[in-house]
Structures are given as structure tokens and as C-alpha cells.
Design brief:
Number of domains: 1
Oligomer: single chain
Number of helices: 6
Order of helices and strands: HHHHHH
Structural class: mainly alpha
Length: 161
């Protein structure tokens, strides 16, 4: 999750670097969206660490059976991070793509920024799917010494919000 933040900071920096009014609005909007879905994901990671005693995805897996509510919330937040339509991450990424295609510089720069936008989107989907698969659907959990169960309600409230 922390590594994906670097990717999003790069996107936001690129948007601000385009220096158009709509690109700046898209950058600010993505900061808010990123804060929303990433806060939920980090809280879910805290729940997983609390319940399983590890955040190591190699040792986790199949947690949807043990943490169904927390898994559903984390999966929704991950889909928002990936930019799936109808979720908040989709809107700001769509604004990013629009700004990348409307840049008024020469064709080589437009092509480079459009390619960067495409790569950003593909890598975002890839690491989001890896997180969801390895944590909630993969084989496991392995080498976990605790009985994994849903946390108390007060721990799930911040993820829900």
C-alpha cells in the first residue's frame, strides 16, 4: 500500500506540472480521493495485522472467509484505488486522462504524457489486483499463530467511513 502511494504522488505531481487550471483541479481532487481510499486501506491493513499478527501478504490469503466485512470494505477501497467506474478514484483518473490528451504542446509531448497515463493506470490495476488476490483470495493463511476473526465494531467504523 505504501508503494502505491508513490505512484499516486507521481500522478499528482504530473497533473500539477501540466499547469492548466483543470489539471490543477484534477490534482487536488485526486489528493482528496487518494486520502479517502488510502486511509480506509491502511485502517484495513491495521485490522489484518491486529487479527492475523502479520501484514506479510506471503503469509496471508483467503481472509475473506475469516474477515468478510473487513474484506468487503478493503476490496471496495482497492477498486476505488484502481479507478474502477462509479468509485471516486475513477473520476479523478478520468480527469487525468482528459488533461493528458488535451495538452497543447507538440505531439511528442502529448504522446509521452498519454503513454505515462496509460502505464500509470495499468500498474495501478495490477498492484490493486495483486493486493486483493494475495490477501483475500489466495491460498492461506499460512504460518499464522492466531485465530483470525472480525475485529470489534469500533475498529471497523473508520474503514467504513
Amino acid at each position: 500500500l505504501a508503494y502505491s502511494t508513490i505512484s499516486h504522488l507521481g500522478l499528482i505531481t504530473l497533473l500539477f506540472g501540466l499547469s492548466t487550471p483543470l489539471a490543477v483541479v484534477a490534482g487536488l481532487f485526486h489528493i482528496l480521493n487518494h486520502a479517502t481510499f488510502k486511509a480506509s486501506l491502511f485502517m484495513a491493513a491495521g485490522i489484518i495485522d491486529h487479527e492475523a499478527g502479520t501484514r506479510d501478504m506471503r503469509r496471508l490469503g483467503n481472509l475473506r472467509r475469516y474477515l468478510p466485512y473487513t474484506s468487503a470494505l478493503a476490496i471496495i477501497a482497492t477498486l476505488a484505488m484502481a479507478g474502477i467506474p462509479l468509485l471516486n478514484g475513477f473520476l479523478s483518473k478520468e480527469m487525468f486522462f482528459a488533461q493528458a490528451l488535451e495538452i497543447e504542446h507538440h505531439d511528442a509531448m502529448r504522446l509521452g504524457i498519454s503513454a505515462a497515463a496509460f502505464l500509470f493506470a495499468m500498474f495501478g490495476v495490477a498492484y490493486s489486483l495483486r493486493f486483493v488476490h494475495d490477501t483475500f483470495f489466495g491460498a492461506g493463511p499460512r504460518a499464522v499463530d492466531r485465530v483470525i476473526h472480525e475485529p470489534p465494531r469500533f475498529m471497523r467504523i473508520p474503514v467504513t467511513v
